[in-house]
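Field log, afternoon session.

UNIT: design team B
ACTIVITY: writing a sequence onto a fixed backbone
BACKBONE:
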C-alpha cells in the first residue's frame, strides 16, 4: 500500500490524496479526485505550484541549476552533439544510430523546400514586420497546405510531420529575413548540414557568396542545442494546451511561437540588447540601472535576469557565457555591449536585492551578444530561439498525444464578478 499521502481536512472531514513521486524524487499531491470528493478546486495563480502532466523528456532542478534532456546533463550534450542529433534524442528518447541519423538527415533535406505558392505570402507582410510574427503566420499557413495533419491522423506518421516542420521552419525563418531586407530568397542546398544550410540561406547573396565557417556552424549548433527544450515553460504549455483540443500540428506550433515572442519569455533576448544599448547610449552608470530595476514604482526590469524555475545560475547561461568569450576571441570581435553585460552581471550578483530574490542571469542574458557576433540581426534573435525550441515543442506534443489519460486542457476559475442580476432590474 502507498503510505505516502496528504490529508485535506475540510469542514471537519478528512480527505486523503495520494502523493506521486517522479524519477528524481520530486513529489506532488495528486488532486484528480479533489472536486469530486470535496466540491473544492485549487487556486494556483499562473500555475506556480501545479504539475500539469507527467513527462519523460526534460528534467530541471532549479535550486541546483540542473538541466537534463532524456537523462543526459546539458553539459554532456552542448558543444559535443549536433542540433540534429539532439532533436532526434528529444523526439525519440535516444540518440540516433548511424542508419537513423542518415535517414533523419535525408528527410530533413527532402522536406526543406517550402511549397512555392507559400512564397507569395511573404509579399503581403508590411516592410519591417517582426520576423516572429511572420514565422508564426507562415507556420499557421502550413496547416492549410497539410490540412489532415491533426492529432489522430498523425499517430502513424509523426516522424514525417515532425521532420518536415523542423526542416521547413528553418527555410521559412531565413526567407522571412531575406524578405525583411529586400534580398532574393536563397533555397536550401542538399549538401549542407542543418546549421550550415540555415546560415547559407540567411547570408548568401548572388553578389556576395557566403563562405561556410565551421567555427560559426559549431557555435550555432551549440546555441540551438541549449534552447532545444525546457520542460513546461510558457510556450511548451501553450503547445500542450492547444494540442489537447486536437488542433492541427502546424496551428499548434504557431501558437507556441506566438507565446515565445513575448518579452518575458523568448523575446527577452532582443530586449536584453535594447537594454544594453540604452545603457551605452545614455551613459547611465550600472548602479543607476540597478536602482531602477529595484524600484517598484518603475516598470523597468533587468532583462535576461530572473527565472520562474532557476533560483541559481541558469546552466545554459553559464555555457553561453563561456562560448561567448571563446567565440568573440576567435572571431576577433570586441563588443562594448559585452563589457556592459559583464559589469551588470557582476554588480547584480553582489546586490542584496538580486541575491535575496535569487535573481541570476538566464539563457537570454548572453545569447544576444553571441548571435550579434555571428551576424544574426537583432529582430531574428527570438526566431533563433524558436528554431532551437521546435524539437522540444514537438516532443511534448507527441508525448501528450500518446498519454492514455489525455483530456482537453480546461482549468477552473474563481468567479469574482457580479452576483445574479436581471436586465429589468438595472437602470439603462
Ligand atoms: N529585474 C528586477 N526584479 C525582478 C526581475 C528582474 N529581471 N525578475 C524578478 N524580479 C523581482 C520581482 O519584481 C519580484 O519582486 P517582489 O517579490 O518584491 O514582488 C520577484 O523578483 C519575483 O519575480 P516574479 O516576477 O514574481 O517571478 P516570476 O517567476 O513570475 O517571473 C520572470 C520570472 C518573468 C522571468 C522575471 O524574472 C522577469 O520578468 N525577468 C525579466 C525577463 C526575462 O529575462 N525573461 C526571460 C526568462 S527565460 C525564458 O523565458 C527563456
Amino acid at each position: 500500500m502507498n503510505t505516502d499521502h496528504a490529508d485535506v481536512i475540510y469542514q471537519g472531514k478528512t480527505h486523503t490524496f495520494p502523493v506521486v513521486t517522479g524519477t528524481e524524487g520530486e513529489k506532488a499531491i495528486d488532486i484528480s479526485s479533489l472536486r469530486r470528493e470535496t466540491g473544492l478546486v485549487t487556486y494556483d495563480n499562473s500555475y506556480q505550484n501545479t504539475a500539469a502532466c507527467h513527462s519523460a523528456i526534460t528534467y530541471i532542478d532549479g535550486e541546483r541549476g540542473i538541466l537534463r534532456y532524456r537523462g543526459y546533463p546539458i553539459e554532456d550534450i552542448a558543444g559535443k552533439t549536433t542540433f540534429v542529433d539532439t532533436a532526434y534524442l528529444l523526439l525519440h528518447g535516444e540518440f540516433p544510430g548511424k542508419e537513423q541519423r542518415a535517414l533523419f538527415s535525408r528527410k530533413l533535406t527532402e522536406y526543406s523546400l517550402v511549397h512555392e505558392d507559400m512564397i507569395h505570402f511573404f509579399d503581403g507582410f508590411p516592410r519591417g514586420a517582426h520576423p516572429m510574427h511572420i514565422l508564426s503566420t507562415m507556420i499557421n499557413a502550413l496547416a492549410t497546405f497539410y490540412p489532415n495533419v491533426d492529432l489522430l491522423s498523425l499517430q502513424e506518421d509523426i516522424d514525417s510531420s515532425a521532420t518536415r516542420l523542423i526542416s521547413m521552419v528553418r527555410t521559412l525563418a531565413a526567407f522571412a529575413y531575406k524578405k525583411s531586407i529586400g534580398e532574393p530568397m536563397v533555397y536550401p542546398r542538399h549538401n549542407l548540414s542543418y546549421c550550415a544550410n540555415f546560415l547559407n540561406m540567411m547570408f548568401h547573396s548572388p553578389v556576395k557568396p557566403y563562405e561556410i565557417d565551421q567555427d560559426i556552424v559549431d557555435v550555432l549548433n551549440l546555441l540551438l542545442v541549449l534552447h532545444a527544450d525546457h520542460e513546461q515553460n510558457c510556450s511548451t504549455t501553450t503547445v500542450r494546451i492547444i494540442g489537447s483540443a486536437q488542433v492541427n500540428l502546424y496551428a499548434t506550433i504557431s501558437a507556441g511561437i506566438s507565446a515565445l515572442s513575448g518579452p518575458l519569455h523568448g523575446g527577452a533576448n532582443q530586449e536584453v540588447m535594447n537594454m544594453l544599448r540604452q545603457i551605452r547610449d545614455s551613459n547611465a552608470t550600472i548602479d543607476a540601472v540597478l536602482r531602477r530595476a529595484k524600484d517598484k514604482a518603475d516598470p523597468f526590469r533587468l532583462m535576461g535576469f530572473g527565472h520562474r524555475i532557476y533560483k541559481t545560475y541558469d546552466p545554459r547561461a553559464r555555457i553561453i557565457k563561456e562560448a561567448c568569450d571563446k567565440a568573440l576571441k576567435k572571431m576577433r570581435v570586441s563588443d562594448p555591449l559585452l563589457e556592459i553585460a559583464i559589469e551588470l552581471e557582476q554588480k547584480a550578483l553582489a546586490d542584496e536585492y538580486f541575491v535575496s530574490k535569487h535573481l541570476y542571469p538566464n539563457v537570454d542574458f548572453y545569447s544576444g551578444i553571441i548571435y550579434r557576433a555571428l551576424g544574426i540581426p537583432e529582430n531574428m534573435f527570438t526566431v533563433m530561439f524558436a528554431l532551437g525550441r521546435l524539437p522540444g515543442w514537438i516532443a511534448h506534443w507527441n508525448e501528450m498525444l500518446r498519454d492514455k489519460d489525455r483530456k482537453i486542457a480546461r482549468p477552473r476559475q474563481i468567479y469574482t464578478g457580479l452576483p445574479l442580476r436581471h436586465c429589468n432590474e438595472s437602470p439603462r
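LOG NOTE: The mean pLDDT is 92.
NEXT ACTIVITY: expression trials, pending approval
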